[in-house]
Amino acid sequence: MKKIITCKLISLLLAISALAALIVGCAPAQTTDADGTTAPAPAERDDVIVLFTNDVHCAVDDNIGYSGLAAYKKYCESLTPHVTLVDCGDAVQGGLVGAVSAGEYVVDIMNQVGYDLAVLGNHEFDYGMTQLQNLIKKSDATYLCANVNYTGKGENKLSDVKPYEIMTYGDVDVAFIGVSTPYTLTAAAPVYFQEDGEFVYDFGKSEAEFYACVQKYVDECEEKGAEYVILMTHLGNTDAYSPYSSDGLIAHTDGVDAVLDAHAHNALPCEVKKNKNGENVLLSSTGTQLSSIGQLTISAAGNVSVGLITDYAEADTATTAFINSVKASYEERLSTVIATSKVNLTGYDENGIRLVRNRETNVGNFCADAYRAVAGADIAFVNGGGVRADIKAGNVTYADTIAVHPFGNTLCMVEATGQEILDALEISMYAVQKEYQKDGEAYGENGSFQHCSGIRFTVDTSIPSTVTFDESFMVSSLGENRRVCNVEVQKPDGSYAPIDPAATYKVASHSYMLADSGCSHNIFGDNVFLIDRSMADYEILLNYVKDFLGGVIDERYATTEGRITIK
Asked: Which domain holds residue 559?
């Protein structure tokens, strides 16, 4: 069977059994309607359809939602018996339904929809290795990750994860290979990947090792008779994820027909990339929160096409009922009003461009102030990647606080020298650029960007960052040419004084950063802990509003205060 792999952008409103779906993508096999509209050729009985999702982040009934996905899956099954549903990671974390159940409710819903395969995204690890092991066992889907290695002496919590799965559709074998970002080691809590303080898990210790590992399994699948090889990756396709991006992986491998990607949260209907031999590879990603459904089709004639379903109104009633039953079990408590806010706390600018990972924001200041006040600290930090939602003006509910901090991290406070704080700031600001957006997209982002309380400073972006990282993506060197300058600590009377590198300060944050070396902050683990894994992160916000703000988030948070100056 001859493979035809091409890409052509299409955008149309297609009537599917009286159901509306907007499809955008690559379509080598096409028909032209009487009005001149170019549309994909109708699916045939022997076609293979692979439906894919990524970065759902607990958005179980947002946008198309899992009920819409279930309905569309059933429609595809009415066209061909060869339908497979896969997820490319970051499904179980990011919202209330995940936070209140440590991901289990999400797995229940995915089982209801009928997932066949899933990849480990970095946020699948957010509830810890033991809970991830439980989620994998609970899931009806087979979890895939070809590039994870375990070298410890204890129990491999990922022993049920397979490198690949070969699915048979009639007389056609298709291989699905899972790939997780090597940056998982620091995008999740590094302590989860360690035994006795040493890393025992890795996802590829070098570019060469990473590419060779994936290529090994591509070759193995072809040797076992797979006619098509699909990579399910949680890598991201932009420069921010280099060198371990989906683009980089395609350019350094061969034998792959398509890559279904995740992690970057950008909707990518289809791009044609060249592999290391100059052959075409299709690349696609659905965005986030079920704003679209991905569909890869292998036609009976051997054509491979991929695109996104971006508008779908039908819903599966059984799945809707199941989701409602899950939500009913916890929503009454979560809807309780715990405060009011006179201002909108947001991590975005007026054009919807995300700021919370590269600029001071009022929601970030609010969170950092909460940690500082509740802990009784001199200084507090909260990383932008850990601030996941806005708080709108009006009533604030229990659910709103969990949405901001859905990870289940806990309050910690350490004694730290001024020099350690300076080092932490330098690490946090390594990706920041003078402009926060480029071509309408956030620019210079990193989840390690620290919002702060009790301290202010300047970042001179004309000075390139000299921070370097080791093979586990922990900081190996800071260099001498620092871009963070003019660092001042707030005194009890509210005034500021230059930080003293030799002095000791009480620093509050969450366990992810201080205890678990999250965001590459391997600075504080050996420090004296004044508070070690106390209340949950969302409880810190609750207590701050109740005990320190009198139940009202007031105008002090209407704007930012210049705690972080970017020049």
From this structure: 335-566
